[in-house]
User: Fold this.
Amino acid sequence: MRKIVVTLILTAFGFISSAQNTDSLMIRRVADEILINSKAYDNLRYLTKQIGARLAGSPGMVKAEQWGFKTMQESGADKTRLQECMVPRWVRGGRDEAGITSFQSTTEGVGKTKSERKLDVTALGNSIGTGPKGIVDNVVLINSFDELEAKKDQVNGKIVFFNYKFNPAYVNTFQAYREAGQYRTHGPSRAAKYGALAVIIRSLSGSTDNNPHTGMTDYDSAYAMIPAVAIGLRDADFLSDRLANGKVSVFIRTNGKFLPDTIGHNVIGELKGSQFPEEIITVGGHLDCWDNCEGAHDDGAGCVQTIEVLRAFKAVGYKPKRTIRFVLFANEENGLRGGAKYSEEAKAKGEHHIFALESDAGGFTPRGFGFVVSDDQFKKIMQWQKLIAPFGAADFIRGGGGADIGPLNKAFGTPLASLNLDSQRYFDIHHARNDVFESVNKRELELGAVNMAALIYLVDQYGL
Amino acid sequence: MRKIVVTLILTAFGFISSAQNTDSLMIRRVADEILINSKAYDNLRYLTKQIGARLAGSPGMVKAEQWGFKTMQESGADKTRLQECMVPRWVRGGRDEAGITSFQSTTEGVGKTKSERKLDVTALGNSIGTGPKGIVDNVVLINSFDELEAKKDQVNGKIVFFNYKFNPAYVNTFQAYREAGQYRTHGPSRAAKYGALAVIIRSLSGSTDNNPHTGMTDYDSAYAMIPAVAIGLRDADFLSDRLANGKVSVFIRTNGKFLPDTIGHNVIGELKGSQFPEEIITVGGHLDCWDNCEGAHDDGAGCVQTIEVLRAFKAVGYKPKRTIRFVLFANEENGLRGGAKYSEEAKAKGEHHIFALESDAGGFTPRGFGFVVSDDQFKKIMQWQKLIAPFGAADFIRGGGGADIGPLNKAFGTPLASLNLDSQRYFDIHHARNDVFESVNKRELELGAVNMAALIYLVDQYGL
Assistant:
């Protein structure tokens, strides 16, 4: 009996070992294809330099969709299509956004004089404009929502400056972003509740430069919609220093507004499954980006990595068992209509979505994956860790997913994953004018695609 | 009995757990000090922008030593000193290094014409110059040492172009560097053996730009010393393409030479141990850098991190049990005289060196440590992994150390470690003109110091 058990164990072990060896070889083959012959970097150059900014509904996004469609076809998709969805059309409006701060300064021998300094401002996404004359008023410094509550009687008719800082003690910068992020999302309405005229926020960044970072604000319909801008970190430090020394007024002019909703598209390439074609695996990034940058890391990287996984699978002749969809989502930044549409149609068609992976944290060195899965699924996934570890994304954690694939999880309970990357540089460039092609490293970008391909391959082979 | 055993186990467990908790708190405290109040980035700015290039024996290195001494004192060292050592004094000599390639090109309607193209060249460190008139000759393309052996009869009186490429399939770029590195180190003498007049190497890099990368070549005294340059990757591709189409000649002019050895110094700051002052722990980087760059990553980063560990220990009031030496080594790049001197003096004085750590792989995000230790020591070290992992350097591997601390291991068997960092960007800038302050990210740099401090703290607490 003992002998039989041992034999059985050895056989089972041999089987697993041989399967893992096959997997290891296939992943290495795909990795080599990407690291040696990748088109991801050239594709990113085109998307950022030839197309550039591409907010939902903008002419740039239309061009990007056409590029995505063509590139998906050229990369070997069995089927490529544009999935129509209505998207919001927020425009910054005009090039004369401005911020000027006025304050008393003391010059020796002269006494107090009025000084001015230009602030580098960017209107928050989805925010309303001030009108062409702008807004001038005194500024109230607020370091936190608690402080806002304490000073709620002082903000009526004033401009509120939320100076909440990125916490540098967090090793993962996304923690700092999550904390500070609420000032961009909810700050304007929280201040409007107490009668503020406009809001300035300290950019959601820990960078050493002064670039302002935009990103969506989310008005609470219970309160007045008031203009809102972000300023760079050096300006924020300057403003808070000045406010510590006396009254400061700021002039802001912004021109944001919504035009009517317009037609946008998710770009979908597909490799049909050979054994279980009805089981769908989705891998994607979002094609839209803010209007003030090239969207190289956010999320050009995720798009070209997605296409690269497709290209590499085809190049090595990999025939997936399950159907793999490569999706460039529309409108992640200011509406999530692309992700919503993808899930709605899946539901209407009764599709079976077994897994979705999104790359939307930049084109930096991969560190791991964040999984939204059951305990049993996570156990299964952990067995794959050693196959992926050689390529860098060894840190498998619970929690993650992605904004565009979230609706699949809500609709079907589809297991999700996010590609997690080295986070140190991300908020230096996130939603800022320096999110450009030059800030992306070719190999880091490619390694992201390698790890995505490895995970997708394993899910395709073994399901969840 | 069972109860006693359980109690003993619980007690032991409680003790370990409480010690680990104390350690965890202390490491977190040091980490916060560094991430919130670090001076590493400002120190690096000064070293790179105010001092800049600092090859051994150069005026820049003298300034850097003075800066290091002063900064070590200001950061709280109990004792600071300059440890004298003789260093080589190689100079590039003159600013008119040049490379021009001449080849036949075919223009429609005109026929074959002679064309020229400038090459971006840099003499290899320690190489001899061509003389002011330069060298012009036909080029022989050699892709590997094997090919050199096969073509050894064709290189006499010619210029050999070693076009060995970085292997992009390696995930860790240091693997590619180790393979390709031998062409820089040994290529010139290997070619001289067969009568070559000069050597051009493809830069040791996988970058997307055309910057040439210098670095030390090591002449074999058995053969003639011949001039040697590196060219950038785009030029290397151009040259090999041209060579595939016919004869190509290249003009090279370099002016490298050795001046007499001169006096250099290791900069040593010390915190005296309170319990075991005779047990010495060394942590360091090297202060010298190549003359064509600011040496920001290589190894300004290691230097300011070393000083930052000192500053942070003092700032949180940590009193080490053992003596900790913070060392900025002289002359790592082209002679290793600083590291040799440090070890020689230690031997002469009968010092007891229990551990040494070097940071010399750039200021990128820390990924782990490479240990040169015994099996038992490694087992002990692995128990610390979970204390360091939250700060990023979780990947503990065997093998590593550092060029400057290597002699300690040879002399005393001292256990060594290297700080291992994300390697993707390193060889984009290594020994090239773009190794400048701007290529270093503040947080990545600081996280390196955090992880170094954590390891040094643990070795100080528990020894090896």
Observations:
- The two ends of chain B are 34 Å apart (CA to CA).
